[in-house]
Design a protein that fits this description.
By secondary structure, the protein is mainly α. Helices cover about 70% and strands about 0% of the residues. It contains 9 helices and no strands. Helix 2 packs antiparallel against helix 3, helix 2 crosses helix 9 and helix 8 runs antiparallel to helix 9. The termini are close together.
Length: about 230
């Protein structure tokens, strides 16, 4: 399992990787459209790959992700813009529906039970569709930053190859992302503290999945990799 392998990768330096993950997420979220998230993710995966190769990892490795600034921004925009496009209709319907069903007290207005049920039913369906689409995007973009770091691909090339690898390994990778999500959800039971504690493990699990698919350190290949058997 990639989660188990990921934990084995970082457990001896867990607090270092936790600090890198927290700072990376904080800085990456500080700028609109998550522009800085790309360099931060590149820095995290660079550190994970160094660890995997037995090299010395320092906290400053996180900021070496800025060496891939331009390419990482391209990958980030390719990922975040579709997410925004997916989310916009949901919020338009949500706020529009809220205005529609909000009672007009001046005229004694009061939405019927049918209108309320219909509104919430539509929200549930749209929310599920939005979640599925965002999860699909996560699958096809899972390897974009690792490819930029490990294979020195351009942002567009990394996105293309990540999409091929994600689709070629769809079900195992989907299962891994769902497990990562469940681990993060379990962390919410600890007043959200566990969500942050799980971050380095989830990143390490993706790094181990990348190694299974692309053979860490090998020359790049344009072919779609075969599905790994042990996700």
């Amino acid at each position: 399992m990639c989660l188990q392998a990921g934990w084995g990768l970082i457990k001896d330096q867990y607090w270092l990787f936790l600090g890198m993950a927290l700072v990376g997420i904080l800085l990456g979220s500080a700028v609109p459209l998550a522009i800085l998230m790309g360099p931060m993710m590149c820095g995290i995966y660079l550190a994970l790959f160094q660890r995997r190769r037995g090299e010395t990892v320092e906290f400053g490795t996180l900021f070496r992700g800025f060496d891939y600034f331009g390419d990482s921004i391209i990958a980030t925009l390719f990922h975040t813009i579709p997410i925004i496009i997916v989310m916009v209709p949901f919020y338009i319907v949500f706020y529009g529906g809220m205005l529609f069903i909000t009672p007009d007290r001046r005229h004694g207005g009061d939405p019927g039970a049918g209108a309320l049920l219909g509104f919430f039913g539509v929200m549930v369906v749209m929310g599920l569709v939005m979640a599925v689409l965002i999860l699909l995007l996560a699958v096809v973009f899972a390897f974009a930053y690792p490819l930029i770091v490990e294979r020195k691909l351009s942002g567009i090339e990394a996105v293309k190859l990540s999409m091929k690898a994600g689709l070629g390994n769809f079900w195992p990778l989907l299962g891994l992302l769902l497990l990562n999500g469940l681990l993060s959800f379990a962390g919410t039971l600890l007043c959200f503290v566990g969500v942050y504690l799980a971050l380095p493990v989830t990143f390490a699990a993706i790094a181990m999945a990348y190694e299974q698919v692309f053979d860490l350190g090998q020359a790049p290949t344009p072919l779609t990799p075969p599905p790994p058997p042990t996700f």
